[in-house]
Amino acid sequence: MEKIKDLIKIVGDENKRYIYDLIETDQMELLNHEGLNEITIFDIIKQIKEFEVVYPDGLVKYVERAKTLLKKSERATNKYANCMIEQPDNLTKIKFHWKNSCPQFNECSDTDNKLYMHSLYVETNKNGVNTSSSISNNTNEDSFDEGTVLACNSFSLTEDGSTPVTNTSTDEIVQTDQYSKNGVILPSEMRSMNKEEEDERVAAISAVSSASYASPSSGVLPPNISVIEEYIYYENIGLQEIDRVCFILLAGGLGERLNHKDIKLKLITDVVSEKTYIEYYCNYLKAFQDFIKKNKNKEIDIPFIIMLSDDTYEKTIDFFQCNKYFFLKKSQIYFLKQKKVFCFKDNEAHLDFIYKNNTFYFSKKPHGHGDIHSLISKHIEIDDLVRKGYKYLYFFQDTNALAIKVLFVCLGVTIKKELHMNFLAISRKPGEEIGAICKCTNTDTCMNVVNIEYNLLGSIIEQTNNKELVDTEGYSLYPGNTGAILFEITKYNEILKKTNGIVPEYMNPKYTDNTRQYFMHPTRVESMMQDFAYLYFSHEKGTEWNAEGPESKGKKKKIINKNKSSPDRQNGDSNGNCCCNANYRYSRVGVTQLDRALCFSAVKNNSFNAQRKTQNNNVHPECIYSAEADLYYSNCAFIELACTYNRKNFNMGKMDNKTFNGVRYCMPPKVLIEPQFAFTLTHLINKIKGNIMISNNSTLWIKSDTIITNLYLDGTLVIERLNAEDSTTTPFILDQSLYIKNRGYELVPLHHKSNDHPDNLKMRGYKLVKREALIISG
To answer: 0.70 exceeded by the pTM?
Structure first.
C-alpha cells in the first residue's frame, strides 16, 4: 500500500481519483504489478480519461454494471426471468409456397424440362460464339413507351473483341479472338447448321416461347399468385414513400475472423460484378435517386449514415475518397465513429491488460452496435431530417446484400399498419444461432415484440421445461432477426431525446471451463441496436431502462432529457419523467417475416467454421461462398415470382452441390439484377414478359433497363448501357424469343499452392474464368 500512497501523491489532486477508482473496483492485480511506477501510472490514467469520454458514467459505474450483468449470467438469469415467451404481436408473414424448400439445407432437386442445344458457328472458326436467334420478330411495340429501343439479335463486345478481364479472371481465361472486330456478327457470317442442329435450335425457342403456365420447375405453386399480390400490394405502398427514407449502415467490423485483412465493406458480393458491399449499397441509393428524379420530378440526396469503429473509420473514408463516393455526394454521407470500452478477464470484473514495452495497455473492444442510437443522438440533427420531409430510417448490416432488395415491402407494412418500429425477420429453426423475435410477458410487463438472443432463449425455454414451439414445417414460432429494422422517424426522435439513445446492456462471456470463472477471451459490456425496442415499451409503462432492465415507476429515477421543451413533458411529472403518455401508450412495434432466400444471407464465418456448421448442425454456413450463392438464388427466386405472376414459366437446371474450401453448398445460375433494371418485384413483373429457361452453369447479368419476353440461356448474357449514368433513356426491348448458347463463365477451384490470389478469392476457394459472353450494350 505504501507504493500506492506514493503514487497518489505523485499524480496530484486532479488525478488521484483515478487511483481511488481502481482501488474501489478491486483492480489490485494492476495496482500491485511490478511494472507500475511514477511513469506508467500516467499512461493508465490517460487511458481511463479516454474511456470516460466514451463512457461518461465513469469506471466505477462501468465495473459495477459488469458485475451485476455477470452475476445474472452466472445464475443463468436475465431480464427475461419469469417471462412467458410467445409468438410476437403485429406479425405480418408473407410466405411463398415452394414445392421444395429453398436449397440451403437440402439436396438440390432436379429440373424436369432441360434442353441442351448446340452452338452456332462462325464460318472461319470451329469454336462456339455468342449468338441470339429468333423465329419471330413480331414484338408488340405498342405496349412500350414511345422511343423505346428495340434490340433484336444485338451483339456488342469490347473494342478489341474480347471479354473484359478482371481480378477474378486471370491466367486461366480463354482468349476469344474469334469475335468480329466490329462487335457484330451478322447471320450471313455463320455457317449453315445441319438439320439436327437446326431442329434442336427451333425446339429450344419453341419450348420457351410457347410453354403454357404450370407449376414452375424449381418449386413455385399456383397459390403463390395471391401471396405475390399481397407482396406487391405492400411493396407499392412503400414505393410511394421512396423519397422519405434515410439509410443507416452498421459497419464497424474488420474481416479478420473471415481471413480478410481489410474492412468487411471491401468484401466483394460476387465474382461476376466484383462489386464490394459498400459499392453495392451505394449503387442502390443512386438508383433510388434516379427513380425519384424520373418518377417524382425532384432531385434529392438520400442521407446515408454509416457507423464505423476505430478499426474501420480511416480505411472506409479513404475507400470512399478513392472511389469518388461511388457516384453519391460527399455531403449526403455521414460517418459516425464508435469508440471502444474496457474488457474484463474474469467473473470478478477485473480489467484485462497487458504489460509490454514498459507500459500498460488495457484491452478494448467496441461497445456493440447499440451505440448507433447514441451516436445519432449526438451527431445527427433528426429534427432537420423531419423538416426536410423524411419519415423513416432503415437500419441494416454490412454484409447482408439481400436486405435492401426487400426494403419497400417492409416499408409498405410499416405504413399500412402504422408501426413505429418494424423488424425484418425470417423463418428460423430451433437452435439456430440467430436472435428470436418474441412477445415477452410477466406479471408487471408485456413487451409485444422484442429480440431475444439465441443463447438466452434456450435458457428461458429450459426454465419452463418446455420445448421451442414449431409450425407444421418445423420452423420456430419465433421469427429470426435479420438485423434490418425500419423506424418511423417522429416516434424514434421523441424517444431518442428522452433517452439519448442509451439502450440496455448485456455481457456474453465464454468461459475457459466449468468453474465459470475465467473468460476464454476478453469480454466487455455491450449493447445491441435492436434493443431500442425496449425503450418503446418502457415509456408505455412510465418506466425507463437502466443497465439491468426496466426501472419501476416507484423508483422515481429521472429520465435523461436533453430537450426540456419536448411536447411530451405536459404528460410527465415536474422532473420530465415520462408517465403513461398517451402517445407512448400506443407505441407499435411489429415484424415482417419473409422467406430467407429473398432477404437474408450474411457473412459471419470463415470457411473452417462454415464447414463445421454444415457438417455438425446442418445449419446455414453464413460464409462468403454461401452469401454469393444466395445472392444469385435470390435473384432467380424473384424472377421466378415475376414469371409466376405473369402466368409464365421459369426453369433452371439442376443446382449442383459444389464444394469450395471444404464448404458444400448449392450453386444456382449466376444471376445478377442491378437496381437500374429492377429493384422491386413490381418492376420485374413489368419487365419480364415471357418464359425464362436458364441452365445451371449460365450467367445472366442485367445492368440496365430492359424488356425481356422469352429467353433461353445456356452460357453468359450481359445487358448493359454504355452511358450508365443516363437514367432518362428508354429501355432495351429484347427479341421476343431470344436463344443464346456459348461457353460462358465458369467457377473453378483455386490452386491452393499459390499465394498470388487476393483475399476475396482465397476466402471463397474459387475464381471466375470468363470464356465467352454475349454483351448487349448501347
So the answer is: yes
